[in-house]
C-alpha cells in the first residue's frame, strides 16, 4: 500500500509510524513545512520521501491523510486534485467534520472524513508514537459518493492501527465532540486561568507546587497547541457554545446548592455524575 501524509506532526507522524510498524504501507511520502522534522523522519525510516510542496509525489497512492489544522484541510485537498489517482481515497484527521465534509462533497475525489480519538498535549513529529491509536476509537464520516467497499477497506486499515472504527453522521460527531472533547479543553484552560487569577503569591509559586496529580490530569489538555484549538473552536462554534451553556447551567446549579449548604443536593449531584461517568466504555 502506498500512502501520502500532509502534515507530519503528532497525528501525521504517529500514522506514519503505526503504518510502518504494522507493515501496512510499503511506501510513505509526506508534505510538511518543517524540513528539519521531515529529514529526521526520513533518516529514521518513518517515511520514504518528502516534499515541501504538494506535487507529483502524491500521485499513484492508495490513501492520502490530511493532518493539518481544520481550517486548511479543504485547501490542501484542492491542491492534491491534479495528482490523485482514480483509486486514491483522501481522508483527514480533523476534530470537526460537518463543514469539512460538506465542502469536500463538491470536489471530484473519494473522501472519508476521519477523526482518531487520540492525541497528546505534546505537539510535533518528535512526540509521535506508533501506538498512539491503540485501544482508541476512530470516527469515520464517509462522503455520500464513496463506494461502500472503500469505506469497509478503510475501516479494516483503522483496525490494523489498533483502533475501533465508528461510523457516524458529521453533525452528530460535531455535537458529541463538542461535549466530550472541545468544551472540556475550554474548561481545562479556564481552570488554569482561574488558578492563575486566584494566585495571590505568584512569586512564591505556591499554586504550581501544590497542583497535584488530580489538577494536572484534569488540565493536561490545556497544554495543547493554541493555534490548533483556536481553529477547532471556530470550526465548531455552535456546538461548543451549546456545550459551554450546558456547563454554565450545571455550575450555576452547583453554586445554588453550595451557597445554601444543601448537603443532600450536593451528594445527589456528585452521585449522578459518578453514575454516568462509570458508564463510559
Structure class: alpha/beta
Radius of gyration (CA) equals: 21 Å
Principal-axes shape call: globular
As a percent range, the share of strand residues is: 5-15%
Order of helices and strands: EHEHEEHEHEEHEHHHHHH
**Given this structure, which CATH class of the largest domain is correct?**
Alpha Beta
CATH architecture of the largest domain: 3-Layer(aba) Sandwich
Can you tell me the CATH topology of the largest domain?
Rossmann fold
Largest sheet, described in full?
8 strands, mixed
Number of helical segments?
11
CATH H-level superfamily title of the largest domain: NAD(P)-binding Rossmann-like Domain
Helix content: 40-55%
Average per-residue pLDDT, rounded, comes to 94
Strand order of the largest sheet: 3-2-1-4-5-6-7-8
- Residue stretches low in confidence (pLDDT < 50, at least 5 long) are none
How far do the termini sit from each other? 33 Å
Question: Number of DSSP strands?
Answer: 8
What is the number of domains?
Answer: 2
